[in-house]
Write a structure and sequence with these properties.
single chain; about 950 residues; alpha+beta; 4-stranded parallel β-sheet
Length: about 950
Amino acid sequence: MTEINTAAETAAPHRYTAAMAADIEARWQDAWDAEGTYEAPNPTGDLAGDAAVAARPKKFIMDMFPYPSGAGLHVGHPLGYIATDVFARHARMTGHNVLHTLGFDAFGLPAEQYAVQTGTHPRVSTEANMENMKAQLRRLGLGHDKRRSFATIDPEYYKWTQWIFLQIFNSWYDDEAKHARPIAELVERFENGTREVPGGRDWNALSAVERADVLGEYRLAYASDAPVNWCPGLGTVLANEEVTADGRSERGNFPVFKAKLRQWNMRITAYADRLLDDLDALDWPEAIKLQQRNWIGRSEGARVDFQVGDTGAITVFTTRQDTLFGATYMVLAPEHPLVDGAAKIVPAAWPEGTREVWTGGHATPAEAVDAYRKQAAAKSDVERQADAKEKTGVFTGAYATNPVSGEQVPVFIADYVLMGYGTGAIMAVPAHDARDFAFARAFELPMRCVVEPSDDRGTDPSTWDDAFGSYEAKLINSSNEDVTLDGLGVVEAKERITAWLADRGIGEGTVNFRLRDWLFSRQRYWGEPFPIVYDEDGVAHSLPESMLPLELPEVEDYSPRTFDPDDADTQPETPLSRNEDWVNVTLDLGDGPKKYRRETNTMPNWAGSCWYELRYLDPHNSEKLVDPAIEQYWMGPREGMPTGGVDLYVGGAEHAVLHLLYARFWSKILFDLGHISSAEPFHKLYNQGMIQAFVYRDARGIAVPAAEVEERDGAFYYQGEKVSRVLGKMGKSLKNAVTPDEICSEYGADTLRLYEMAMGPLDVSRPWDTRAVVGQYRLLQRLWRNIVDETTGEVTVVDEPADEDTLRALHKAIDGVSQDMVAMRFNTAIAKITELNNHLTKSGGALSRPVAEQLVLLAAPLAPHIAEELWHRLGHTGSVVHQDFPVADPAYVVDETVTCVVQIKGKVKARLEVSPSITDADLEALALADPAVVGALGGAEIRKVIVRAPKLVNIVAG
């Protein structure tokens, strides 16, 4: 093969080859960098540039933040980056000022774990990974404004992440105004008495600790004792995604327990309604909107109080308050504060007559509750919510009063109730809820039918096989001396019982959300430090802006302390907590030097990606988060974008309810506080598909190198042994990764770009096939050959007009490609360019210069290097990047003639070639005069002629 290639190159020394592509691509990448080709001018500030360019309509195009992995890129990673680059290039060529750049989301667990294993500082490994990734991306010819790039680990970047945290910490959500306000306004209201302090206390008489506790109930960033996934074997708290379904750590397979730890939280629940409502204004895939709606989980119902002796009340949230008469017991989540704290409901001894099945064989309620809570702590939320056959729980020894019946109902704890939804307590209506029914059967609890069954099962639940639930049935057995629901439908019954509860102050109609406040602490080193210090009373104080950024200190040991994997009663020890000189400091926060203790948790890796779109706008601003005029220009609201935001955001659908929800939350707070004009970060969202690859496994199920597998007679073999093949992800661990460097070396970057865009619709996953790459390579070779003589290297175009057939082919291609570019149908755009190029190749002879130039311009967004080279060889001095995209001439787009079908009694009798612009009258006359039509009519009377110019004439005769 090498000899054949060498011979071909000798015969055609100016043929487009991989070597030539490498030379062309490297030269133009250097030139673009030197000339600042992709720099987008701001309307003001240090990045202000060409005023004429800044006056154009703008396009802000973004990719989701990449994490700089040590493994580097495989060919699946650049799919979205190439797509946004093509879209951005077309936008520039259609008169837009385009902001397109890329930074790095560089905090996170992988770099920290590498540091633990090797002793290499996370910054060292992360920066090395970034340099490698930058080189790989540069080789693809991506048109990024490099002046705007940054990494979240840069102190000058996370200074502003810390600053935003402090804005959130120093804010509260005003439910009346429906937006955030500075916490100082709330303090002022407490001081002057215009707002009552909870509990009716005098604000001015409260201690500093008491005031801090009050404000903590309002702050949008607050610390609280929160249930978390604690893994002693790893010495850290884990996110839900890091815990397997059987309640063990994904990494290391250690037991994971539920524990209460002091953690930072973000009060995202305050924005639940706005996060839901504003989805309607966004141009996002409906599937992503639905995921967010489901995650937020808005449900209307009622809050109901069940009195428990003299200790207070258990509050439940229910969407079926109409079934309140059927509540025969209650269940609390094992973590419910009523069974762990000052307001304990657990009595010292079992009530007389307590059933053995309720107590779990324990001597006292306290022992039963303690044992069961430990058992529940060892389960994940997924396990607890699974439809297990065996229902577990334990009686607390307490009874609550059903507010409508006055009955004393037993209170249990059970793991199928979670603190993460509602109030962490339920009223159990076993006759009409499948889980409650199963629990009641297991614990021999009473059941009462209050919704009339629509089948023949009767109204005695003890004879049923399962619960009966319906929103269509009537209420029965639901009345007392003050209220009756009998005979009412569900909606009317809900309204009546809710009003009755509200009148008595024991309940009210309310809205509940599935969404929980965002747990914002991590017991890790490699993350943003919190700009918070604690005084000797434990009160949190924010650092002044002058002390930002608070940089990460150097530590010798990056690993958290680990414990006996089965010891749930341990507490995490963070890496930062071991640096005493950093933790304990003397600061002057405005009232003289005092001793403080720093927060030793770090922010989660999501923090830096919550606002990075704003830093792209004004990346060197050290005085403000972003210049208001610059933010308004790039992201402010405008026609069709009422909440503002990025014009196009491309990334994977897997971030639907994490990054995308968090970023929206931060944007709304910054908008409320007047720092930005855009209430939403991303106006248009596009989810690209995934490039997949075949995974080959041997008889042991172990992946083998895909590149070394041979196919014979429809079967696959590795080193002579038959292996299985299945389509899956591409990755190093699956031994099927193909790097972009390999493809660039063999064919050139433009070929890789074309192949990835031509594989299929951008939003659909598709399999990688290295053998198919050559098809796009040959397209570029034919494109080159149509303009450059492969023997001499001379341009072969002529200064003569093209024939009409060529002009029609050209302008139809321009029209189709233009539409495809706007709609991101890059695969069909490439098909149209290929069709045009083939037409020109088959036409023979030299190309007309105008045709050649427009062909190059059509290809420029997709294959920028070869287009730039050909553009300059055609005699131009300016970059192809900023040329006008071709515009189709309508006269050549419309077909010269179209085929008109003539029918008589529904049967085709003639076909006419007519002008697309023919009138109905002319077409009717032409059809009636056609010899075939005259013959078919045979003199019959014409009763009606239906004309649909230019394609149909239907004649009714006889």
